[in-house]
Each structure stands twice: as structure tokens, then as C-alpha cells.
Write a structure and sequence with these properties.
Elements: E1 3-12, E2 20-30, E3 35-39, H1 46-50, E4 61-66, E5 69-71, H2 77-93, E6 94-97, H3 110-120, H4 125-138, H5 155-167, E7 173-177, H6 185-202, E8 205-209, H7 213-219, E9 222-227, E10 230-235, H8 238-247, H9 256-266, H10 278-289
Parallel strand pairs: 3-8, 3-9, 6-7, 7-8
Antiparallel strand pairs: 1-2, 1-4, 4-5, 9-10
Length: 294
């Protein structure tokens, strides 16, 4: 599903002493089947932006289009009811996984948690349970987890179960708001590799908010920088992205992988090229070292 923001403005606590205009004339196109990273310093408006994609927030001004769905502020009761009806269908197609998504778990068993949303959106119990088994397998958990309490699982396992719950509704768009926060390094890598696998296999549109520039470099097909409530920069070119964060005042750090490769080259180690993910970088190092690597 393609997502279009057209002249979107949003203000918190309007007409109060705490008024805060967070989004300012946002014009943004998120392409269908893209893996789009939304980045920017804390308070730039990233989370507010993505919460407009499935109507958790409604634009103060402007519209958000998600394929054939239109999200805009209504004033007449009849129009508000129609919008609410459309949002129910939209949220089946656009799933959001928030920070600490394990806090979205609440049922007594993993199975009940995974199928809860699917049943609410009209899937049959038989289909929902079949889907739950398929999704557990997809995320690397076996069927023995189905009857376990989600609160007995590790943080990484709980996050995988939460992911299964939103995927069970068969969304076309998956939005991730700092979805790896609180996980250890190994679990973060496993989770993002899993998201990338799902992105490729299911041909979803992925939108993810992150502060980790290494993740942006490795996974994103499109990069959007938000600064002070406006779209400050967009690109598909990762080299251009690196140049921008090095030379412009966006308060973004250069990815650790890039800093390490530059350090190597400054000390006389010539790589075949600058790599954007660790696997390619390690393969290059192995080729350089040759037989001595073993």
C-alpha cells in the first residue's frame, strides 16, 4: 500500500499554554513495498508522524492517503461515523508494533494472544489458529509455545509473539516504532533480520522509526529525516545519506560500521569498497586475510 501525506499539520494541546505544533506542512510519499526509515533526534515528530498512518492520530489540517483510504479531520457527526468505520478496516491493513511491544501482550496463552486481533477482524477460529502456527514457525518458535503464558518468555521471545499477533491480521503495511528498544544486541539483530525476511517474503510496506543509523544503512530502501516537525531530507541513495549526516546539522551519528571501515582505511587497510552491512564487510575481510582466517 502506498502512503501519501499531503500538507499535514498536527498540534498537541491546541489553544492551551502547552500548545506544541509537532508536524508542519508534511508532504511525504512512502512507496508501496518500500522499507522506509524515519529518523531524526528525539522530539522531531517521528512517532507523531507514523501514528497518522493508521489513524491513531487525525491530521489537524491536510490529509493522509493509504491506498484508497483517506484520513482527514471531520466535523459533521455523519462524516465522523463514516471515518471511524473506515479506520477499523484501515487498521486491519496497517499494523503498528510499538516500543516495548511485549506490553501489548495480555492473554493467558501465546495462542490466544496471537489470534485475538485476527478474530476481532472476522477471521474464523480455525484459520486464525492455523495462521498462528505458521507465524510461530516463521519467527523461529515451535508449536510448544502456543499453550505457554507469554509472560514466561524471554524479552526477545515476547517481542516475536507480539509481532505474530499483528501479522495474524495479514496487514499490507507494518509500522515499527523503535521496535528493538530494550533488547540485547543479539536479540536486536535476530529481530531485525526477521523483519527483513518478512519484508521480502510477504512483500509488505515497512515503515520503521529508529535511532540506530547502522540499521538504517543495512535495511532501509528509503530514508526520511524529520527535523523540528518538517521533512528535512529524503533519499534512496545511502552514500548521499552518509554525506548528509556527516556534513549537515541533523544531530545524527555516523553508523559504527562506517566509522570502523574509515578507521581501517586510515590505517592502511584497503577494502574493496565501503560496505553497508556487516555480512558483506566480514566477507571482504575474509577474502583479504585468505587462508590465514581459518
Amino acid at each position: 500500500m502506498q502512503i501519501d501525506f499531503e500538507k499535514v499539520n498536527f498540534t498537541y494541546n491546541k489553544k492551551t499554554p502547552y500548545e506544541n505544533k509537532v508536524l508542519k506542512n508534511i508532504n511525504l510519499k512512502i512507496e508501496k513495498n518500500s522499507f522506509t526509515a524515519i529518523i531524526g533526534k528525539t522530539g522531531s515528530g517521528k512517532s507523531t508522524l507514523i501514528e497518522h498512518i493508521n489513524g491513531l492520530l487525525i491530521p489537524e489540517e491536510g490529509i493522509v492517503k493509504v491506498e484508497n483510504f483517506i484520513i482527514e479531520r471531520k466535523t459533521k457527526r455523519k462524516d465522523i461515523k463514516e471515518l471511524e468505520k473506515n479506520l477499523i478496516e484501515l487498521r486491519k491493513n496497517v499494523a503498528i508494533l510499538f516500543q516495548f511491544s511485549e506490553q501489548q501482550l495480555f492473554e493467558t496463552t501465546v495462542l490466544k494472544d496471537i489470534i485475538y486481533g485476527a478474530l476481532n477482524y472476522g477471521f474464523t477460529l480455525e484459520y486464525a489458529e492455523k495462521k498462528a502456527r505458521e507465524l510461530l514457525n516463521l519467527v523461529g518458535l515451535d508449536e510448544s509455545y502456543l499453550n505457554r503464558s507469554p509472560f514466561e518468555l524471554s524479552g526477545g521471545e515476547m517481542r516475536k509473539v507480539a509481532l505474530c499477533g499483528v501479522l495474524a491480521m495479514e496487514p499490507k503495511v507494518l509500522v515499527l516504532d523503535e521496535a528493538t528498544v530494550g533488547l540485547d544486541f543479539k536479540s536486536k539483530v535476530e529481530f531485525l533480520n526477521l523483519i527483513n525476511k518478512i519484508y521480502k517474503e510477504k512483500e509488505l510496506t515497512i515503515v520503521f522509526v529508529t535511532h540506530n543509523m547502522d540499521y538504517v544503512l543495512e535495511y532501509a530502501t528509503n530514508i526520511v529525516i524529520v527535523k523540528n516537525g518538517v521533512i528535512a531530507f529524503e533519499t534512496k541513495n545511502k552514500q548521499k545519506f552518509l554525506e548528509i549526516i556527516k556534513n549537515e546539522n541533523y544531530n545524527l551519528v555516523v553508523p559504527e560500521l562506517i566509522k570502523f571501515q574509515e578507521l581501517l582505511e586510515n590505517n592502511g587497510v584497503k577494502l574493496s569498497k565501503i560496505h553497508y552491512n556487516y555480512n558483506d564487510f566480514l566477507e571482504d575481510i575474509k577474502l583479504m586475510i585468505g587462508d590465514s582466517y581459518e
